[in-house]
Amino acid sequence: TCALPIFLVDEAKGFYLFRDRWQDGNDFVASIYLKQQPLGGSWSFPDVGSFRIWGLGGHWANAGPSVGEQRENLVVLPKTRPWEAGKNISFSYRPNGSGIVSLRTDDIFGQDKESIGLVRSFAVDYSGTSGAPGLFAVVDQFLGSTEAEEFREKVWVMHTEGKVTIKGQNFTIQAANGATMVGTFIAPTRVKLSWEKTDTGSKIIATGGSEFFVVMSVQRGQAPAVKVEGSGLAATVRVGKQEISFDGDRLVLSKW
């Protein structure tokens, strides 16, 4: 017999999927899509850098309503078109199913011919070092102009199926079975968090800055504490015995 793989990587299209096991509905499955080979002249779904997270019976980061031009689980610049393609700049993984992927988008050019791009890094940790069976982090760092009029507004969006509550720099999603995802915004330091109902569940919305650093744990029972040293993308985040940082191109996990 041949064991089913816990990694699925399509290097041509730019699709990366990480799971912790093949057992039951509690398995963790996380993915990110780089869209390295976009379909020209058509709308294709999802957008560059969109990620999904399922685990412990909950659909934490999910597809949004499939209507119109879908823009889900990414940073949106509402006054511009979406990025057309992404390119892998870093990829690493562990035998337990954990992994880290970083991408760089193509550039969007504004009316004044200034351009903007994005580095997004996505980390998945199934080691349990954090005190949670699933730990996830995402960083969004903009490259180029951030002051051009059409580039100033930046909105971080994540679609989910669970019940959402907001408190300060944190959001909590509760699944029907009682499992939770707790997300903490390290950046922006003065994040403005809200949520709204959609046809498929809820949409978490974050604004207030030009860079984003989010750490999310999924668990049953009490979520592990999140401790932060430093600020912004230069911060070191400790969750249990796990340390998370960003080195300018990719997220770094100390133990995974």
How would you describe what is shown here?
The chain has 256 residues and is an all-beta fold. 0% of the residues lie in helices and 50% in strands. It has strands at residues 7-10, 15-19, 29-33, 51-55, 58-61, 74-76, 86-93, 99-105, 108-109, 115-125, 134-144, 155-160, 163-167, 170-174, 180-187, 192-198, 201-207, 211-219, 226-229, 236-239, 242-246, 251-253. The strands form four sheets. Strands 7, 8, 9, 10, 11, 13, 14, 15 and 18 form a nine-stranded antiparallel beta sheet that branches. The chain has a five-stranded antiparallel beta sheet with strand order 1-2-3-4-5, with no helix packed on it. The protein is globular. The mean pLDDT is 91.
Summarize the structure.
0% of the residues lie in helices and 50% in strands. It has 256 residues and is an all-beta fold.
Count of runs of 4 or more consecutive helical residues: 0
Helix content: under 10%
Radius of gyration: 17 Å
Our measurement of the CA-to-CA distance between the termini, rounded to an integer number of angstroms, reads 28 Å
Specify the overall morphology. Answer: globular
Q: SSE order, as H and E?
A: EEEEEEEEEEEEEEEEEEEEEE
The main sheet comes to:
9 strands, antiparallel
Mean pLDDT across all amino acids: 91
Low confidence ranges = none
Quaternary state reads single chain
Strand content: over 45%
Helix-strand category: mainly beta
Overall strand count: 22
What keyword list fits this structure?
single chain; 22 strands; 5-stranded antiparallel beta sheet; globular; 50% strand; mainly beta; 9-stranded antiparallel beta sheet
